[in-house]
Amino acid sequence: MDARTVIESIRDGHATPAGVAWFAGGLADGTVTDAQAGAFAMAVLLKGISEEARVALTRAMRDSGDVLAWDLPGPVIDKHSTGGVGDSISLLLAPALAECGAFVPMVSGRGLGHTGGTLDKLESIPGYRVDTPEDRLRDLMRQVGCAIVSASSRIAPADKRLYAIRDVTGTVESVDLITASILSKKLAAGLGALVLDVKVGSGAFLPSTAQAQALARALVDTANGAGCRTSALITDMDRPLALTAGNALEVAEVMDTLTGKAPTPRLIDLTCALGGEVLAQCGIAATATEGEGRIRATLDSGAAAERFGRMVAAQGGPADFVTRYASHLPKAPVIRDVPAPRAGTVASIDTHAVGTAVVHLGGGRLKGGDVIDPRVGFSALAEPGAAVGPDAPLAIVHAADDAGAARAIEALQEAYLLGKAPEPRALVQDRIAP
């Protein structure tokens, strides 16, 4: 077998599981050139591959590097989100699942485009280390039951190479390649069950319902075909998930929610829904409804907050973070209201524009190598249906300087449309099961 033969078979609509698996191996060992990898990606984008071939590609990309195996007194599970604005669910869900008896080696990512990254949020906590060797990750599982870490270079190297090539060849949008990319890294963590949070709406990478459903179905079928019990929820990203957007600000909102100081209902509801799904998948709960109740109990009792504090301390953060998080998190020097352009009601929010405004404040990366400012972003974001006006701003901006604040105020004003109050949208819009 050779690269040209595999590419031609995909181009002609006859991709085989053996062929795409061989190609994944060639990506990892250098047998395949960059030009051939680009042609492969374009052929898959234009022609697609079968479910059987997608499973084979995912497995081969997973097996191109280290695949963890566990010997723990409970199921090893995780959650993955396709990315959104104000989405800090991982920080609530990992400790809640651990409190329920699961083990959660959560391999997370950084901000991508207009969306925030879990690792960037956690690095706003002084001392928190996301780069964790495998032996230390195993210690964390035994000692804490959960950890949120970055992927090592030895996890799915075939995906790392193909992802970089897709980024510069206009082939990022392939559902088959998105599926293999996400799942190869997740399944390399040795999971027994997985829940997927597939976003839909103005702040999602795939804004239409049809696109989100197609991706969710591909992810669920491929993960189960690869031997990992998986289901997906399609959830609303037509507005920021939380009331904040920005790294340290989102961590503070998570802590307000975990400690009960000022809980955000949407964060709690989605944490419970996703947690219920995966607890049912792994057998800790008999049903998703029972699992939701168990997750909610860990949040209500403060047990999830205590577990989160243990995780932070074990990964290098302050031992007293749960009780003194407000003093530990960095604060922006310029904080001011974002006035509404006129009195009215919030009709809709361009959530992509909100995320982009955070990036331009310094809360994300405009190019590789940019250093994130964890202090910046928005808090107290007005929700759809809210009345705004002279005494009710759209939000509060947190900026590094006056000029940045002024630009962010203008961008947020443009992101909000005032008019008739919208019809309520369900937070969980669909469930995709095997």
Overall description:
With 434 residues, the chain is of the alpha/beta class. The protein contains 17 helices and twelve strands. The mean pLDDT is 95. The protein folds into three domains: 3-49, no CATH class; 77-324, Pyrimidine Nucleoside Phosphorylase, Chain A, domain 2 (3-Layer(aba) Sandwich); 334-418, Alpha-Beta Complex (Aldehyde Oxidoreductase, domain 3). The strands form four sheets. The chain has a four-stranded mixed beta sheet, sandwiched between helices. Strands 6-10-8 form a three-stranded antiparallel beta sheet. Strands 9-7-11 form a three-stranded antiparallel beta sheet. Helices cover 48% and strands 14% of the residues. The chain has helices at 3-11, 17-29, 34-47, 51-62, 89-99, 118-122, 134-143, 157-169, 175-187, 209-225, 247-258, 265-282, 288-301, 303-314, 321-328, 351-363, 402-415; strands spanning 77-81, 104-108, 146-150, 193-200, 229-236, 334-338, 344-349, 377-379, 387-388, 395-399, 416-418, 428-432. α5 (89-99) crosses α12 (265-282).
Order of helices and strands: HHHHEHEHHEHHEHEHHHHHEEHEEEHEE
- Gyration radius from CA atoms, angstroms: 21 Å
Would you identify the CATH H-level superfamily of the largest domain?
A: Nucleoside phosphorylase/phosphoribosyltransferase catalytic domain
- Biggest sheet strand order reads 1-4-5-12
- Note the beta-strand portion: 5-15%
Sheet of most strands: 4 strands, mixed
CATH architecture of the largest domain: 3-Layer(aba) Sandwich
**Low-confidence parts, pLDDT < 50 over ≥5 residues?**
none
